[in-house]
Amino acid sequence: MVAQLNTEVTFVSKANAMINPIDPKSGLLMVGDKGVEFREENGPGFIQIPWVNITRIRVQMFFKGRYVRGFYFETDEGQLLEFVVDEAKDSLRAMRKYLPREKFVAQQSNLANLFKNPFKRGKKDKE
């Protein structure tokens, strides 16, 4: 069994790791003093991401920030890890204690593009 990364866990939530989009892995996302850990419910799967390795967190926000679906972790090794979390806003608040605000970025939603009017006319320049 792998040793835990964190000595103190401050927040735990149910989550799905979207490593493979066809077969998401369900488990627990734990935010602690040394990083973020994901433990799979069934099987030996685990992911450990120390705070120093996280370069950016892209937050998936919908409806002007009223609903947060999940987030992507970008690491210094070029990895992109997606998690869909039950209590995403609360987990982001817990991560905010350990990371500066500049590391959190709102991701552009594809859902917003669906509701744009394709027949809307732009303003014409007057000459």
TrEMBL record:
Q: Which InterPro entries match?
A: DUF956
Look up and give the organism this protein is from.
Answer: Aerococcus viridans (strain ATCC 11563 / DSM 20340 / CCUG 4311 / JCM 20461 / NBRC 12219 / NCTC 8251 / M1)
What name appears for this protein in its UniProt entry?
DUF956 domain-containing protein
Q: What Pfam family is a match, any one?
A: DUF956
